[in-house]
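Rather than argue in generalities, we have chosen a single entry, letters for residues, whole numbers for local backbone shapes, without further comment.
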Amino acid sequence: MLMMSATVLACCVVLGLALDMSIGEVRRYHPLVGFGNMANVIERRLNHPEASRWKGALAWCVTVIPLVCCTQVVLILAARFSLWLAPLLNVLLLYFCVGLRSLRDHNLPIQSALQQGDLDTARRLTSYIVSRDTAHADEEYLAKASVESVLENGCDAVFGTLFWFVLLGGAGAVLYRASNTLDAMWGYRNQRFLRFGCVAARIDDVMNWIPARLTALSYALLGQTRLALKCWRTQAPAWSSPNAGPVMSSGAGALGLALGGSASYDGVDEVRPPLGMGRNATAQDIQSAWRLVLNVSILWTGILVLAVIVMSGTLYAA
């Protein structure tokens, strides 16, 4: 029974990623968009200038727990109803939660616009994926912003989702992406969210701790290993985020790029710690970063499938 479950799990991962790469994200009525809209409504009702961390914790629980519980109940009922319905639903849940192709679809057009010299389009497209100012950005700034976004989301949108899916199935993927989405919406250190979003940010930190380090290790193994490990060791501690630092420093080192540094947020220049070592980012590096994320996905999917095959052979031999 355990072996069958492992086999089905591996098949679900392969099929979910294949579905994501072949179809891409849903253009209309995406579940994560609906979740974000619901989170906005809850935040407006519970967040106010005197809101405490407890209000933020309550908002997180009200937003996430019913969704995850309902998902798990549906999967349990589906498993009792049909042998194939639950695996099919798990594949669909992984497809809706993972964002491998969406990383490509949102970032490679930036590369194309930069290579064509269309800075206005590149600035507009980059503004969709990052919170930093892009209105007057040059090519190097935009390329750096896109590469950093790809590397960070290689964990948040791809590997972290796969990790929690393997650990807890479709409900685990939903739990992770819901938590990650709330961190992206509420986890700002500004007057509005400093207390209210604190719990969402800390929960996301905890859920990402292992996936982030596995992602950083994978970047190092698949790129310039020594440089990536050196950057991870020396640069990650300087970042306030316990997970973004390892992921982006290792990824930048793996690509041999110098990222980090100055960035503008709401008109205020912020000097961030350095990421990686080497040359400055160019438009072509956006595709290189996405290929690194793709290769990480292939690597771990292959490891999962290989583990199932080895376990199957051991079981049959016994």
